[in-house]
What does this fold into?
Amino acid sequence: MLAILRRDRSAAHATVENTMRNNTPKQWTTRQPRNRSIWLLLGICSLCAVAYGNDHFPAAGNPLGSCAVPVPAAAEDVSAPTTVIGSGTATSCTGEAVVQGVARGGVITFNCGPNPITITLTQPAKIVNSTGPKIVIDGGGKVTLSGGGTTRILYMNTCDAAQVWTTPHCQDQDHPQLTVQNMTFIDANSSGLDPSGGGAIWARGGRLKVVNSRFFRNQCDAAGPDVGGGAIRAFSQSQNLPVYVVGSTFGGRTDLGNVCSNGGALSSIGVSYSIINSRFTHNRAIGIGANPAKSGTTGGGSGGAIYNDGNSFQLQVCGSDINNNAAKEGGGAIFFVSNDRSGTLAINNSVLSANPSAGFETAGLPGIFYLGSGSAQVSSSMLDRGNTTTSANCVFNWGEHHYAELLYPTPAPSQTLAPYYYRHYASTNSYVGISSQDDRLRYMGSASNNQMLDLGSMATWKQSAGCQ
It folds into this structure.
């Protein structure tokens, strides 16, 4: 942690340097803070969790994602809603009220009282295609829709006559333009449903956009070569314009991952995606036998986080964190097959780490199976199979987001001075780091009177931060 210290630094910096030089790793593990409030402030406990609003789940999006969000991908204005679900109390916000409100369409908001609420559905809420052209569902950061482990949550299909045909070419029309934003989708289950896949959201036709939303423990069929999307499955987007996924989280913790035969989080056929400043962790593709299914298998198992298949489509990933997803066949992070080899994959300013592919992946692209036009384009990004520095960076990033009063300005670069791997924050003269000798997290800075604090095992912090 000393590489950035220079002789002309202030006396405070000299004190930090001397303190660090005079502490062996063994001494670091026994040094205690002077004030218990510091301990609490730093969140040193095995039960620490990331808050979002007032709940205990991970926040939406990648806190270090800094990619620009294009205008079409931005959140929609909901200042003048046309449909309001609820009448001001939690009891007025029922699953039936959600189904009826979504059917009315337009700009949909919730009035369920001041506190966060989870609303459990017993049947999917279905978009009526004539209630657009824009349909926006905004939970205000307080609404969680649950499938209760038994049902899909949201369904849109421009080619379903029961939901009203609005053009003679349902497979390529520019509406409805569906946006879900500031929402949480949890415990959806589309297993056995027709159409298959899309545990939380199934969308065909028009446009789909997801902004500042979270997807936890959603699932679809566990077997099958062509079924996918534990969280979302999309088809037939207008003029092959992309599905935007912006500032959103899929999984985020070991107990919250989304699961399906293919595409634990996202799945599509012939659909482009633009994924911006988002986070995918602990999602799994659990089918066996790939596609086409090997003899004696039921097929599936590709794309732990993302599954893309079809002909001409693009996948763009920018400012995103994709880690600790897994596939029983190909592409622990991403499975991308363009059958006519016209599709392209671009990854920029992102980290893909520790995404095991049990069956197959493309050489030089850990966690990815890619067949497309030329080579996958990877820039300003890190792809690896998972190591100490990757785990440390994940915990550091999480700390910068949730203890911003101590760790700023950000982003801070990670540095190495063996055996230490660390970051320094000039505004508070604070350090966080690990030693490769004992794999424990430490803090030293203004909050500890420049005393070195042993914050505990990295294993505990990785679990709290969703970095395993």
User: Anything to note?
Assistant: DSSP finds six helices and 33 strands in the chain.
